Amino acid sequence: MEIKTHESIDQTLCGEPVEVTEGTSTVRLTCTANMAADASGLVHGGFIFGLADYAAMLSVNHPNVVLGAAETRFLKPSRVGDVLMARAQDQTPLERKRIVQVEVSCGEDVVFSGTFTCFVTKQHVLAGS
Fold this sequence. Notes:
It is a single chain. The protein is an alpha+beta fold. The chain is built from two helices and six strands, in the order αββαββββ. It has a six-stranded antiparallel sheet with strand order 1-2-4-5-6-3. Strand 4 and strand 5 form a beta hairpin.
């Protein structure tokens, strides 16, 4: 499926789309040393959130989709070298307000889960500013 949103995103920081279908997406992120928060190799949660957010945007896959809110949980730590997979499912695909469920896993372990509230606007949020 053609990707219609977030076309300029840095996929080394937010993940690489593996699959994008109507209402769903799967995005893979390899955690690199520049994502480490400390000398132990703990990955900063902002990168994991960014991965989940990007997966949510791709599940909606509209040029004007924006994030309005997120309720999230970090369930396990991630380390440099981990390969994370984010799977997103748009629960309300015909609405202007979209509720998207996202789970991020490392192997068999779920490391993050969230509910993302996204909006599809009539025009780009920066149009006219």
